[in-house]
Amino acid sequence: MLPYPNDCRKYYVCQKGRAYEQQCPVNLFWSQLTYRCDYKEYSNCNSDIPSTNHDVEVIFTAYPGDCRRFYETRILRCEQNLQWSSVYQRCVAPQYGLSDCQSYPVTLPPEVPFTPLPTYPAVPTVPATVIPYDHMPIASTPPAVTPMESLPLPIDVQSLCNNSPPNAYIPYPGSCKKFIHCGPTATILSCSNSLNWNPAQRACTTSSNGCQSSFN
């Protein structure tokens, strides 16, 4: 707990790094010796040894694990020739032996010397070579491209069976050695080497009556 600057009827309660302002009851004053609101004769609020001056530095820091909360820390400075005492929780005169504070120098990190970047020689500029228009190279004629023969598109045998009766045998377009069985799934079958598909008889025979071995 800390005294409130310039108001003996108030004091601070510090919890988790944050100071909360409190008000003493009527006719009572904060006493830094008894750590409570006491009668004025027991309060050292108006003593010859002041607590702190008005140099206040406020630091805000994040609260771990909670993005809606933060710490507010007030750094106060004792008045001239006074030192902070953790025992009395106030600024006291060091000549009375009341201060238990020990000052120590703060070691600053060493300064890194600045090293300028080395200066590199400038790259000489090479003039561009201008080629006269009369000496410009002539593009060669590209070779003639022979168009390739168009290949037949793959045959969708399932669509052929969709237009045929169930369990039917139909010719395979472009080949007399093959035929299609339209069962639950369209299946491509082949005749033996010496036989061809005969659409009229719906069988593999020596005669390929009505079979077309090439696309129109």
From TrEMBL:
Keywords: Chitin-binding, Disulfide bond, Glycoprotein, Repeat, Signal. Residues 1-47, 158-213 form the Chitin-binding type-2 domain. The keyword Disulfide bond applies. GO terms for cellular component: extracellular region. InterPro entries: Chitin-bd_dom, Chitin-bd_dom_sf, Chitin_bind-dev_reg. GO terms for molecular function: chitin binding. It comes from the Eukaryota. The keyword Signal applies. This is GM24689. The gene is Dsec\GM24689.
